[in-house]
Design a protein that fits this description.
The longest helix has 20 residues, at about 335-354. The chain has helices at about 1-5, 10-25, 55-65, 95, 100-105, 120-125, 195-205, 250-260, 275-290, 300-305, 310-315, 335-354, and strands spanning about 40-45, 70-75, 85, 110-115, 130-135, 150-155, 180-185, 210-220, 225, 240-245, 265-270, 295-300, 320-325, 325-330. The protein is of the alpha/beta class. The protein has twelve helices and 14 strands. Strand 7, helix 7 and strand 8 form a beta-alpha-beta unit. A nine-stranded mixed beta sheet has the order 3-4-2-5-1-6-7-8-14, sandwiched between helices. A five-stranded mixed beta sheet has the order 9-13-12-10-11, sandwiched between helices. The protein has two domains: about 1-20 and about 30-220 and about 330-354, 3-Layer(aba) Sandwich (Rossmann fold); about 220-325, Type I PLP-dependent aspartate aminotransferase-like (Major domain) (Aspartate Aminotransferase, domain 2), CATH 3.40.640. Helix 9 (about 275-290) runs parallel beside helix 11.
C-alpha cells in the first residue's frame, strides 16, 4: 500500500498547489472570509480522520456551559439531509450525523446544529441569541474567519510522512498551522516523557505565541446503549468482548480494553460507516459464536448513534450492548493554560461586543 501511495505523489503536488493558492487568496483578501463579533471557536486538524475533535468539543462544552448560551455547529458528516438543521434528542444519525447526535444526547440543554454553510449557520445561531459557537471540523472552511482556532494533532501519527491527499492523509500542509491560536497533541500516552514532548513541541512550534499542549484519552466504564441492557459493565479477565468500531482509529480503544480483557474479537469498519441490517446481523452471529457465556458487545459513543437507528436497534435489543465513554485528559499544567486561553478569549470578545 505504501508503494501504491508513492505513485499518487504527483497528484498530491497538484493538490498541495491548489490548496496553497486557495488559502493565500483568503489570507490576502482576494476571496471574502466572514468573521463575527461574538466568540467563534473552531476545533480542527490538518489530517483526515480521528484526532479527537469530538471529545475536544465536549471538553469545551463542559468548560463553557453555564457561563454562556452555547451552541455547537458542524457539517453533520454522513447525514442525508441538507441545509441548516437543529438536532433533537429524537433525531437519527441519518438526519443529523453521528457526532452532532452524540453531542445532543450528552448535552440535551445545549443547542446542537448542522449546516454545510458554516457562515450562514453561525449567523442563524447568533441571531437566535447564542453567545459562543463551537465549530467542529471547520479549519478548512475558509469562508468563515473564526475568532479562535484549536488545531489538533494525533500523537500516534506525528512520526508518519505528512503527505497531502491523495498519497497521504493531510488536507492542508503543515505550514497552515500558523492559523492556529492553540495546538494540542492528542492521544499522548502516559509514558511519553518530557524530552519526547519537547522534541514534538520544537517540531510544531511557531514561536511562543502559539502554545503546544499535550492531552491524552480517558475512557469510562462501558455503559448500556439500550435500556434493556444491565447497568455499567465491569471489565475483567473472565470477559469476552465483541468490539465493533466504525471510526478512523480504534486502536487506542482496543489497547484500553486489552488491559482488562484478554479475549477481544474486533469488527472494524471505515470511519462514519453507515451500518446496515446485514452488518448488525453479522455482529449478532459473531457474538452468538463466542463460547464464553460472560460476554459483551462494545462500541464507541459515535458508533452507538448510528446503531441506534430504529431499523437496526431491534437486532440488538436483547443483547448486552455497551458503549465506552471517552474524554480529553490534559497533561500537567496544560489544562490551566488551555482553560485560561479559551476563557480569556470569550470574555474579551463578548466585552467588545457589548
Amino acid at each position: 500500500m505504501h508503494y501504491l501511495r508513492l505513485l499518487l505523489l504527483p497528484l498530491s503536488l497538484l493538490y498541495g498547489l491548489a490548496t496553497w493558492i486557495r488559502n493565500r487568496c483568503y489570507d490576502w483578501g482576494w476571496i471574502k472570509s466572514t468573521s463575527f463579533a461574538k466568540p467563534t471557536i473552531v476545533v480542527g486538524n490538518l489530517a483526515v480522520g480521528g484526532t479527537g475533535k469530538s471529545p475536544m468539543i465536549e471538553y469545551l462544552v463542559r468548560l463553557l456551559d453555564g457561563k454562556y448560551k452555547l451552541a455547537t455547529l458542524s457539517r453533520g458528516y454522513g447525514r442525508k439531509t441538507r441545509g441548516f438543521r437543529e438536532v433533537r434528542e429524537g433525531s437519527t444519525a441519518v438526519e443529523s450525523g453521528d457526532e452532532p447526535l452524540q453531542f445532543k444526547r450528552k448535552f440535551p440543554h445545549v443547542t446542537v446544529a448542522v449546516a454545510e454553510n458554516r457562515v450562514k449557520g453561525v449567523q442563524r445561531l447568533i441571531d437566535s441569541g447564542h453567545d459562543v459557537i463551537l465549530l467542529d471540523d471547520a479549519f478548512q472552511h475558509r469562508a468563515l474567519d473564526p475568532g479562535f482556532v484549536i488545531l489538533l494533532f494525533d500523537y500516534q501519527t506525528l512520526g508518519q510522512p505528512r503527505w497531502l491527499l491523495p498519497a497521504g492523509n493531510y488536507r492542508d500542509g503543515l505550514w497552515e498551522r500558523k492559523r492556529a491560536d492553540l495546538m494540542v497533541v492528542t492521544k499522548t500516552p502516559a509514558a511519553a516523557d518530557g524530552k519526547e514532548k519537547e522534541r514534538i513541541r520544537r517540531k510544531l512550534s511557531i514561536g511562543q505565541q502559539v502554545p503546544v499542549l499535550f492531552a491524552g484519552i480517558g475512557y469510562g466504564a462501558p455503559v448500556p446503549v439500550l435500556p434493556s441492557s444491565p447497568g455499567i459493565a465491569a471489565l475483567d479477565a473472565n470477559l469476552s468482548i465483541l468490539l465493533v468500531t466504525g471510526i478512523a482509529n480504534p486502536e487506542p480503544l482496543h489497547q484500553y480494553l486489552s488491559a482488562y480483557v484478554k479475549d477481544i474479537l474486533q469488527l472494524r469498519y471505515p470511519d462514519h460507516h453507515p451500518y446496515t441490517s446485514a452488518d448488525v446481523q453479522k455482529m449478532v452471529d459473531r457474538f452468538d459464536a463466542l463460547p464464553n457465556p460472560h460476554k459483551l458487545i462494545v462500541t464507541t459513543e459515535k458508533d452507538a448513534q448510528r446503531l441506534l437507528d430504529p431499523v437496526l436497534r431491534g437486532f440488538l435489543a436483547d443483547l448486552p450492548f455497551y458503549m465506552v465513554p471517552i474524554h480529553v485528559r490534559f497533561d500537567g499544567e496544560a489544562e490551566q493554560v488551555f482553560k485560561q486561553m479559551v476563557s480569556a478569549y470569550c470574555v474579551r470578545t463578548l466585552a467588545s461586543y457589548q
